[in-house]
């Protein structure tokens, strides 16, 4: 943890909208109108999100009766309620996504839909502020009797997040509902209330954000209380263990994230928010160390987290199987939430490296090209082809198979949607010295520096295909400031030119400090040759394998139809991958003798016939888009 | 499948008791009094089973109210019923174990306990023969409305098995209840009845066994109907998929076992029984091929089956992670059921190889020394030490951690108990030529050959510590016959002496054919030097690793307290393992640098300091008996 955390005032125009607005930190995040993505890879995905995904989500939630739960017996809950205990939260996350989207592109129809949903939700809120369609109504289970699985505070948290997003983008329909709900929670779970936590963290960051928005300290205090209470085994015993709920060890005493990955990551995000707002640097350092250790030992090459299907959990250190890798989409979104918070607090670009890795290899992989199908989990090794699923059927399982239009537990869609709608706000920030550019896209940035000077830049790039990034200064009020561009960890040998003059690139940043003029051009070149990577030798699952990366992209070998037996490939890792239209690695196929028993003395091995073969690789995020296929990220080396 | 399957008549004294009594097959199984284990490794475990495990099981089933379910409102079910839907089956399996035990060692107290339980169960049976404590009573769910999860036919199957065991060991309390129950099932699920199967196979082998015992063809026909109905997706959709229930593909059309391992294996056992009794060689061949392929591609080194925790299922071919290997105890028992049936049908000793592997490395591993604690699952790699659990607390989870006294799902205890109580019947058999000895123990065999001649042999051995097996003929009525001893697949170089004269050992059998005289001595020497084994290169999880076996035992490295970092060991597999008091392999420890990101270019690797170390290995079945520890079966090779 860097000690020189500087306090940055809330100087930005709040109507621009930002997901996280800490009152202090090394970086100040930019709003939707301060940083806009105007073209390329992510602009295309934002467009699909706006034009297809949001509507797709709404249609399914209506079709399955999840929205209907709010209106059936408004305010009283419904006896024939549909969906799981957490279905309310999907509507809230969708509402959050719509709010960011409305902030990005004002749209009367979108505003009307938000107002409609807000009225519906307001109608379901109890007089005392309680809000959940599954509990407390006639014939329903009572409130707060099943904190482990009821998801009552989890849903509340997502509603608060939606309200914060809507308020930060200029709408006021949700905030009164949110404050009534939050005040109810403060009464119910305050210092003199129930000494309890929710089985699924989420209320923690949400309450802090609401406190940041409203300036009401009681919400931050309540979040701090929830963070302090976690880890004392107040939830009931379960087969998955208390670690599943992060309720096994107090937050301040843990060394690593464990148990259910999304739960652990949402809690970490909330703990960071609490630490930042309460000036608790010890807590901040502890959670940062837990996350750093999780990244170093419990994270897939893609940035995906959580290796266990049964309990959607982190495994032990270095237990990262490629087969049936879990790497839940929502854990990717949650890890970005944590990394972004740590980045704002510390300014460390390594967190942006991780965010980029997750964006290109988990988030981009999760979505079908039409924006209407999703991966819930992200295997890194598909051994057999799987059936194509009908696109009008809700999927009961989470793992394997092609992207599905909907899941019984369909948390990924709206989580991706809210991230994509607000994505540009993660791409740049302001620090004490000037502007920082973390991610590369065709973009326009128009903001104010810490001292209030207005500046603007325009970036142009073919990233991630191409590693050249051109930045042009479009506005400056004079005086010296710094333009900093992240140099990804993989980009050793990056070069930079300032108005055509070569300058030295730093290890993790290009820093250009000068009295800028409008029209100044900074051009960064990141080396994009494909490269082999090897795993830590403690990751048993991929021992003796190599993977190939190109720029921020993890590549994979895919065999549509499964005709090429990928499990027989042996890559010659002494020959660097080559690139023409596609990246190719040299390999041979090995004849593998079938035996009646798959273990034996070394001498029993059948000397295989070797056939040389060039194996084309594709970006991992492109896999499973051409029909049923087999796939490997990690390729055994010869 | 061998074509020369000979029909062997039911010539044995049935009161001897045998778990499986096919009406035809290459081998005729021996009863409890024809084959007795008199000392050594398994005798000790049979004694613990008799003296501790059966009582331990009964105590827990009483304490948790599982036995009480039968008496609370006898015959009507109970409103406050305790335990899961399948708890009845645990009492039935215990009853089966008690029956074999009573057959092995007549004991008035044991007979009294069986009679008490029989009366209790009879009281809970409905007038029409239905028997289950969770369904059909006042306030309970109706019968047969939840075939996927209700376990009604599963429980019925285990009751039939108990009744068969009791009848074959001379008791008659259970058979009338069983026949009423089976007749009810034939009416309810017959050709004109419900076109349905149970979510958990088990009724299939049970009905065939009841048919064999009683000579009533209708039970065999009903079993055949259940086998034919399976695989047509008549069970409702579930997140685990129809494969979980083996209901995805008809038995005759499948190529490999898949889905929930115990379900698949019990079904395979039933399908073999049906095939044998109905003369359906095509079905027999199909199921044998499925099982053989499962052994070749979906089985752990220990013989354990099922690699997935979430659904207790087989994974795809070669997906056999050591970390959190599932390898459920009950799947081991079930695999022995299948292998034994195939062995009886075909005479192939390779099935006895597999049974031996499972016995020494799954079954022996499952039981605590005191017979009162159990492994539900069998990991092959424990990375972190786990807490010691209290010995009076029911465990909610199945995976990881030390042996537990009881589980919420506590199927393993009684399954092991019924196997151990009947174990000697798997050790030898009679074929058309003479006597076959499949497993090695101090034992006494007293039986009749296929032509009715009485013979006897006594075996003495220090197996599995020692590979010398001495067989002495104790009875013969003259004439030529064959004494066959299995030569395990690993025992290349086995030697044999007949009355001191060396004779050639065959590849998988020692065959001694002669006119035996009482006192003839056959001595077989199996080579017991520890040996390295390597995995099929398609098993990604253990690529680049070796394991060590000695005789039938899989060995492992264990570090009590975790002081030695097993994940840093690199074994020098060019140096053969040595043996003095214990088996030792040469290795070095590698310094593994911690990095902030666990993947990188090869040149980034920190050249580790190497410290040579001799690593002592212990039998895998001995692990986790000295306190919390880390453990590896597969050791990375240098």
TrEMBL record, chains A, B:
Q: What's an example Gene Ontology biological process for this entry?
A: carbohydrate metabolic process
User: Which residue numbers delimit the Non-reducing end beta-L-arabinofuranosidase-like GH127 C-terminal domain?
Assistant: 530-636
Q: Name one Pfam family in it.
A: Glyco_hydro127C
What the entry lists under InterPro entries is as follows: 6-hairpin_glycosidase_sf, Beta-AFase-like, Beta-AFase-like_GH127_C, Beta-AFase-like_GH127_cat, Beta-AFase-like_GH127_middle
Q: Which PANTHER family match?
A: DUF1680 DOMAIN PROTEIN (AFU_ORTHOLOGUE AFUA_1G08910) (PTHR43465:SF2)
Q: Which residues form the Non-reducing end beta-L-arabinofuranosidase-like GH127 catalytic domain?
A: 36-424
The protein's name in its UniProt record: Glycoside hydrolase family 127 protein
Q: Give residue ranges for domain Non-reducing end beta-L-arabinofuranosidase-like GH127 middle.
A: 435-528
